[in-house]
Amino acid sequence: MSNKTKTNPPTHPIVIEHESHQLAWNRVSKHALEVSKTLKQQGFQAFLVGGCVRDLLLGKTPKDFDVSTNATPQQVRSLFRRSRLVGKRFQIVHVRFGRSELVEVSTFRKSAISQNTGDEIRHSDEGLILRDNLFGTIEEDAFRRDFTINALYYDPSTKRIFDYVGALADLYNRELRCIGDPSIRLREDPVRALRAIRFQAKLGLTLHSSIRAELPLMAAKILSVPPARLFDQMQKMFLSGYGENMWLLLKKTPFLKILFPFTSSDNNLIQKAIRNTDQRVEKDKPITIGFILAALLWEDYSARVVALKEHKKIREARSIAAIETIQDQQKIISIPRRFSAFITEVWLLQPRLEERRKRDINRLFNHRRFRAAYDFLLLRKQSGETGVTDESADWWTKFQESNSVREKIKRPADKKKAKPNNKQS
Ligand code: ATP
Ligand code: MG
User: Fold this and answer.
1) Average pLDDT of the residues of the chain
2) Cα 203 to averaged position of ligand 2 atoms, centre (Å)
3) 3-state class (DSSP) for residue 43
């Protein structure tokens, strides 16, 4: 049966009219509006939902927009030319706009706790959700979400907000609460506990005591989450502009030792590298999780080099140490190849930057990872690492300055040369 006919109004939401809420509707992406408009024109329900509504109510500009609808993924797919189905456990549709904008459209799904047929949503013996793909109503969709503040629905056509779970009260009190019993909801998916810490870091919320009480147990269960999913979470934690807050909070929980068993919490370099990334996010500069991983694992890598060089040549010791450090971390959080290559290059460039062999200078300067490796060297120096001399970092700073002066001197001359050619053409 088509979902199109299921347009029953929601049962008991609190409805907040346009005049009564502060949602910054002028910050809604025009593409998300377009998607919801198209769905509505076809007779479906369509709401903005989740993080984007939460962030807009807090006056923040969301980084992604999710649309929730009663159209099935296939129906959504057929309405948008530049769309594709993604996900197995949880099928959604990505609708693309321009080069990089993406609107995620998901079909209303049943809540694991409110439904009782028990066959489609399967739990493991540990309470973990194994499959979560049974379509439902908007109300059921609200109750299957993780935290109250993530379950608000905004109808762009009427500018009304629908609140099924007391989200607005929690949002105004700046409190993070699970929908339902945290001991069940967090156990269903321990990633929710990491998300809780992330929302605390991002939005300055207080975790409800019932969530805090569950954190130690959830940390113990976090290794049941596939390494690839933990890698995605790690990117969200450290590349969204509030990484330093995240790091400071994570350090106070048992998650750090379990997710990064080879990392010590009082390492200065890590905090500096994360702060550096936050500053780059702020300035819209390119960032990579490789840089943060290089810092998180640097101490362990360095200790392995020291141990290995007892019975190996130094270059071999470094290569083996890099491979082993990354491999051990990967058992917990996967590190895709392009990032492990980046980390290894940054590490292996460190001694070369410090030694500054005459024959090596130009090769180093033109190396594709020079800039990242130089930044890493600077942070090592600033973090007070023993053995990193002021000399080498300062030397490279001056070297780059003098090279940029040389570049500037060269450029006007190039322009002069170019002019007559332009006239000729
Ligand atoms: P962010 O600001 O990081 O994008 P977000 O809340 O939008 O935060 P997303 O991962 O984009 O996070 O997820 C969108 C929405 O999907 C959430 O707001 C929440 O309603 C729901 N959701 C995401 N992950 C889970 C989960 N593990 N369990 C239950 N609901 C989830
Ligand atoms: Mg989001």
Assistant:
1) 89
2) 13
3) coil
Please determine, for residue 5, whether its predicted confidence score (pLDDT) is greater than 80.
no
Q: How far is the CA of 268 from the centre of ligand 2 (A)?
A: 30
pLDDT at residue 70 in the model: 97
With a 6 Å cutoff on the Cβ, whether 191 touches ligand 1 is: yes
Probe target for ligand 1 pocket from 145, 164, 229, with the most ligand atoms within 8 Å of CB: 145
Q: State the helix-helix crossing angle for 243-251 and 191-203, rounded to 10 degrees.
A: 120
Backbone angles phi, psi at 97, to 5 degrees: -135, 140
3-state secondary structure of 224: helix
Distance 287 CA to ligand 1 centre (A): 23
Q: Which amino acid is at 87?
A: G
**What are 122's two structure tokens?**
């399967």
Domains of the chain by start residue, with CATH: 14-197 (3.30.460.10), 280-411 (1.10.3090.10)
Q: Is 51 in the pocket of ligand 1 (CB under 6 A)?
A: yes
Q: Which residues are catalytic?
A: 64, 66, 146
One-letter amino acid identity for 309? K
CB-count burial class (<10 Å; 0-12, 13-18, 19+) for 237: buried
Rounded average pLDDT over 130-143: 82
